[in-house]
Amino acid sequence: MAYSNKVIDHYENPRNVGSLPKNDPEVGTGMVGAPECGDVMRLQIKVNPETQVIEDAKFKTFGCGSAIASSSLATEWVKGKTVEDALRIKNTDIVRELSLPPVKIHCSVLAEDAIKAAIGDWKRKRGDEAGPNGTSAAASQAE
Amino acid sequence: MTSGLRFPTPGIDERTDMHASPSPSTACWNCGGAPGPGHFCAACGKIQPPGDGGYFAFFALPEKLGVDREDLERRYLALSWKLHPDNFVRAGEYERNCSLELSSALNDAYRALCDPVSRAEYLLERHGVRKEGQTKQQAPPELLEEVFELNEWLDELRSAREAGSRGAETSELRERLEGARQAFEEKLAAVDAELGAGFAEWDAATDGGAGDAARGRAMARLNEVLNRRSYIRNLVASVTRELENDA
Ligand code: FES
Ligand SMILES: [Zn+2]
Prior knowledge:
The complex is a heterodimer. By secondary structure, chain A is an alpha+beta fold. Chain A contains five helices and three strands; from the N terminus they run H-E-E-E-H-H-H-H. Chain A has one domain: Sufe protein. Chain: A (Alpha-Beta Complex), CATH 3.90.1010. Chain A has helices at 5-12, 65-78, 83-86, 91-98, 105-126, and strands at 27-34, 39-47, 54-62. In chain A, a hairpin with a 4-residue loop joins strand 1 (27-34) and strand 2 (39-47). Chain B is mainly α. At the A-B interface, strand 1, strand 2 and helix 5 of A face helix 5 and helix 7 of B. Bound molecules: FE2/S2 (inorganic) cluster and zinc ion. Zinc ion binds next to loops of chain B.
């Protein structure tokens, strides 16, 4: 498969690989997988509770080059954004930026899902998403 | 398209989705009669263009997941013989095209139905239950966690090997991975058994003429099992590869 230069760049020099302390109340963890191929991705964010700005982001992906590049790019993009702005990142933005071919679209979907799951986890920790009965819809996303 | 030829049905080479194939449902292009089940007209015997009945219908099989491999292979061989382009060298262009399209559809159909997992995936795709990157199909979070953790061990083993270390630390890691591989191979066997049960459920619903609801339930179950299976299979493959590299 011919990867675009941007994919290769992120693949060879992935940004923000690693982890953040999962139990930190300011950290949200998103763990997602792509059933098409069985690849898994973890994306974490650290949010400033005052400003709602994502101050740090880390990822680790066990998957194809496109998934690694998508998650690497996702961490770059979410850093410095508010949580609300980060939620607006779409997998199609990633596809465009990395020039992913159609068969690799699910890899970018994985990155979008990971951002959403991480933010969901963070909100849940803060009690934002507590439903009427005090439980959370996002609880099953990332434990 | 070439001019002098008469194409009673839409020009075959103008169709875009020919590979979706199977048996024709329209009247025979040649005599207007009802087409037979086997890609040839029952009345005039002419080869027919691929229909859109799906891969099961291509082999004149019911849409059931329990497939007898030998029977499928016999059907495949018989059809590849009958549809082979060599049989149509002196036929008209339309028939030659039919033969080419059918022969390639035959191979796609055989490949899809031969393996039970791809057969089930094909069924779900055909019914719109499984679409690349579209339907949200999350796996159970515990499974993702487990798969993730094992991948981290694999990473550790890889870096230890690259660093040239062969000490107690790597052998401990190997042991852990061996154990995990066993556990996951058991999981794979269990998930395959579940898949078998899902096949039986679908086939029973199809045989019994059960309504769409029962068929839908069977497909949802199959989809869920297939999703879990893909993580497990992927992991077993990487652990096996890594342990072999390390041996
Ligand atoms: S091939 Fe599965 S994430 Fe890319
Ligand atoms: Zn006929």
